[in-house]
Amino acid sequence: MTTLEIECPVCAEVLELTDADRAELHVGDVIVCDSCNAEMEVTRSGEGEDFELELLGVLTTCPNCGEEFDVTEDMLAAAGTVQSHDGVEVSVVTCPHCRARIELEFEEAE
């Protein structure tokens, strides 16, 4: 049984999908990364290496109200960036539940 390795676009964790896993996945299904909770939609699922995912968002928990929400690419595009107290550039998003402004730091995948 072959295993297809897919790298998470957020944290670079390697997701391993066996032939059996892929047989259950269809275009439009969502896979969640165990490491960073990034949600990726299956956009193509064919034979061999013919498999693609598109990042939908990253599930995060608001430190203010404790509610979970997806940080989407649209949300990040609309968010401003600032330098945090330790000099790192962070994105500032608004919690859709309590409207708290939250600083998010993303590490570049290598």
From TrEMBL:
This is Zinc finger motif protein. It comes from Deinococcus hopiensis KR-140.
